[in-house]
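Case 300 in the screening queue. Each case pairs one protein sequence with one candidate compound; here the compound is NAP. For every case the pipeline is the same: read the inputs, emit a complex structure as tokens, and attach any notable structural observations.

Predict complex for case 300.
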Amino acid sequence: MSFDREAKQAAKEDQAQLLSVGIVGFGNFGQFLAKRLSRAGHRVLATSRGDYSEQAQALDVEWVPDADDFCEEHPDVVLLCSSILSTEAVLRALPMQRLKRRTLFVDVLSVKEFPKRLMLKILPPEVDIMCTHPMFGPDSGAGSWDGLPFMFDEVRIGEDEKRQRVAKTFLDFFRQEGCDMVPMTCEDHDRQAASSQFITHTVGRMLGGMGLEAGAINTKGFNSLLDLVGNTENDSFELYYGLFMYNQNATEELDKLEESFAEIKQQLFSRLHDAARKQLLLEDPEGAAGNAPGSTERGP
Ligand code: NAP
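Case 300 output:
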């Protein structure tokens, strides 16, 4: 973009409270956010490892495959939508020196302590950092975003009025889409998400492995389980693995799930055992031991 065009674009965006948002990682979730951002009037550009030129065009998004070109477009916001596992490599490969100094970096990773630490470590001090987690995705957020939680942690936002405004405008986009805005530290997020989101994905994947099928007498409860299976199976295994690997609270929750399942199974089997014993004793009060299943001997 020429200097003149860039200045005009900046003036226009300032006036209209619109941003230019550069999405890094244009997979499932990157495209999902791009669609709404673009619809709300923000300028959206995208870059990714793969070729998403057609998808970008369909969403009215500028496709900029080259990372240098992407940064030279000077987006107000760099929105990291890469997989959890690849984010460090993706971030390190960005030519930061080509961005404008007050760029706001925002991530949407489903774990939060990890990208917070990563961005604080890698990003130059002159850029701003916000960690966010939209608690919905292309399935649960296919319709209205009304009331859907949007977690955010303004990790490092400069006091300068322009920087504050970019951060506020970015958050306002989600607010205006109807999201329930939840300010929360990354650490609190990971504690809570391990026992909610990670468990949801785990149970969904476990049930998915059972090959459950819809039938004529489905209850509402069973239909919600089928929905859960569908939702979790639409997310990549890499995403799920990231929830486990990059959230230190996940192992404990997995252990609790296993213990709880073992306990329930134990309750069932102990009752079954008691019932079987009672039945045995009642049926043959005189010679129960001799008539125990598998026994061939009879008492005198
Ligand atoms: P994902 O599998 O977690 O990530 C796919 C994205 O990561 C693609 O843009 C892909 O780029 C990029 N990527 C993967 N490996 C890469 C590598 N080695 N080098 C460079 N880029 C690589 O699926 P997703 O659903 O789109 O999620 C994206 C992010 O959003 C994740 O961090 C996830 O935690 C977060 N999030 C997802 C949801 C959801 O419902 N899906 C909700 C909230 C937050 P290419 O396709 O170009 O290879």
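Case 300 observations:
- Residues 25-30, 48-50, 81-84, 86, 89-90, 108-110, 134, 137, 235-236, 238-239 surround NAP (CB under 6 Å).
- The longest strand covers residues 149-156.
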